[in-house]
């Protein structure tokens, strides 16, 4: 599905104090608004996702799925800083006529929500029936539910937090160090830092998965090298890490990756407000906070805090060995939890 482009031609001010003369957002709409405009589902993608949730969440979005376009008007926007159509570091800087590259200003999760609000208004949407997102998508969802407490009827923040943890920041900082230590990183060209990003992705994957997931799927040697001498044998876990780095490099760029990890680190719903807990207490949507039992990056304690301070929120913990990536993979359990909560 090709995304549509929304253009906001007026000066856009960022939390950092910097500004852009205008912005654009890539978004998809699957399904139609009903007569009362009461069937909107707004899905927020995670770090390297795009605006087509049917592509990266196929177990939940699509014909005859939980979020069926025949029933809902499903909206998803590509995050600014990214590389799937929304404004980002590979776009042209109107002041220089050249791509921004290293000079693109950082969009925080709060800046992203500010941009989405302009799109929402342009679409004539006054109420969102369901807001849902995992990981960095959940961070944006929480920001918006605080900014506009009466906008969402239901929210489903999954495997996410109110403030990014020192543990998560350490992982992201280490990934950026991989990029920054690529000899090409300072070059003003699209492929700058790409080999460093491959290493960064390999590091990130360790935080996304769990010991048991690797033990079940990556144990032993690759089929191609099983019969070779011991010095020629390669472990599945090793080649899997290499594969994941190469896979991301075919569809992403180091500039966006560098910026998006910074945006995640800056996430803090209490910034500029009374406190994290007070900010969460301002949410009025009916909230089911969902946790993944084996998530080492966004552990259950972070979702317990959300459920404790969002008024009347419920907490559900999915028992999964997938780790953080369980929010992308545990389709059937997620569907059951969401259906039961709404019912």
TrEMBL record:
<feature type="domain" description="AB hydrolase-1">
    <location>
        <begin position="40"/>
        <end position="329"/>
    </location>
</feature>
<comment type="function">
    <text>Transfers an acetyl group from acetyl-CoA to L-homoserine, forming acetyl-L-homoserine.</text>
</comment>
<dbReference type="GO" id="GO:0009086">
    <property type="term" value="P:methionine biosynthetic process"/>
</dbReference>
<feature type="binding site">
    <location>
        <position position="325"/>
    </location>
    <ligand>
        <name>substrate</name>
    </ligand>
</feature>
<dbReference type="Pfam" id="PF00561">
    <property type="entry name" value="Abhydrolase_1"/>
</dbReference>
<keyword id="KW-0963">Cytoplasm</keyword>
<dbReference type="InterPro" id="IPR008220">
    <property type="entry name" value="HAT_MetX-like"/>
</dbReference>
<protein>
    <recommendedName>
        <fullName>Homoserine O-acetyltransferase</fullName>
        <ecNumber>2.3.1.31</ecNumber>
    </recommendedName>
</protein>
<comment type="similarity">
    <text>Belongs to the AB hydrolase superfamily. MetX family.</text>
</comment>
<feature type="binding site">
    <location>
        <position position="201"/>
    </location>
    <ligand>
        <name>substrate</name>
    </ligand>
</feature>
<keyword id="KW-0808">Transferase</keyword>
<keyword id="KW-0012">Acyltransferase</keyword>
<keyword id="KW-0486">Methionine biosynthesis</keyword>
<dbReference type="InterPro" id="IPR029058">
    <property type="entry name" value="AB_hydrolase_fold"/>
</dbReference>
<keyword id="KW-0028">Amino-acid biosynthesis</keyword>
<feature type="active site" description="Nucleophile">
    <location>
        <position position="135"/>
    </location>
</feature>
<feature type="active site">
    <location>
        <position position="324"/>
    </location>
</feature>
<dbReference type="GO" id="GO:0005737">
    <property type="term" value="C:cytoplasm"/>
</dbReference>
<dbReference type="GO" id="GO:0004414">
    <property type="term" value="F:homoserine O-acetyltransferase activity"/>
</dbReference>
<comment type="pathway">
    <text>Amino-acid biosynthesis; L-methionine biosynthesis via de novo pathway; O-acetyl-L-homoserine from L-homoserine: step 1/1.</text>
</comment>
<dbReference type="InterPro" id="IPR000073">
    <property type="entry name" value="AB_hydrolase_1"/>
</dbReference>
<feature type="active site">
    <location>
        <position position="295"/>
    </location>
</feature>
<comment type="subunit">
    <text>Homodimer.</text>
</comment>
<dbReference type="GO" id="GO:0009092">
    <property type="term" value="P:homoserine metabolic process"/>
</dbReference>
């Amino acid at each position: 599905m090709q995304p549509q482009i929304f253009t906001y031609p007026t000066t856009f001010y960022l939390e950092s104090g910097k500004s852009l003369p205008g912005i654009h957002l890539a978004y998809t709409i699957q399904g139609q608004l009903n007569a009362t405009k009461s069937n909107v589902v707004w899905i927020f993608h995670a770090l390297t996702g795009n605006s087509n949730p049917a592509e990266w969440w196929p177990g939940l979005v699509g014909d005859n799925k939980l979020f069926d376009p025949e029933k809902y008007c499903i909206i998803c926007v590509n995050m600014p800083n990214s590389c799937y159509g929304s404004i980002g570091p590979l776009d042209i800087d109107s002041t220089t006529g050249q791509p921004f590259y290293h000079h693109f200003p950082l969009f925080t999760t709060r800046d992203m929500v500010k941009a989405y609000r302009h799109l929402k208004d342009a679409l004539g949407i006054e109420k969102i029936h369901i807001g849902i997102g995992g990981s960095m998508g959940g961070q944006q969802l929480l920001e918006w539910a605080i900014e506009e407490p009466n906008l969402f009827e239901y929210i489903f923040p999954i495997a996410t937090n109110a403030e990014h943890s020192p543990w998560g920041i350490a992982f992201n900082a280490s990934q950026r160090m991989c990029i920054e230590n690529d000899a090409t990183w300072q070059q003003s060209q699209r492929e700058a830092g790409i080999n460093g990003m491959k290493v960064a992705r390999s590091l990130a994957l360790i935080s996304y998965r769990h010991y048991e997931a690797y033990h079940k799927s990556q144990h032993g040697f690759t089929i191609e090298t099983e019969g070779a001498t011991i010095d020629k044998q390669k472990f599945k876990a090793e080649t899997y890490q290499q594969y994941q780095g190469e896979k991301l490099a075919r569809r992403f760029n180091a500039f966006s990756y560098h910026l998006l990890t910074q945006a995640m680190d800056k996430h803090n719903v209490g910034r500029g407000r009374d406190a994290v807990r007070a900010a969460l207490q301002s949410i009025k949507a009916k909230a089911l906070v969902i946790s993944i039992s084996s998530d080492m990056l966004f552990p259950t304690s972070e979702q317990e805090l959300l459920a404790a301070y969002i008024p009347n929120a419920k907490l559900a913990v999915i028992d999964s060995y997938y780790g953080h990536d369980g929010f992308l993979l545990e389709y059937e359990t997620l569907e059951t939890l969401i259906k039961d909560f709404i019912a």
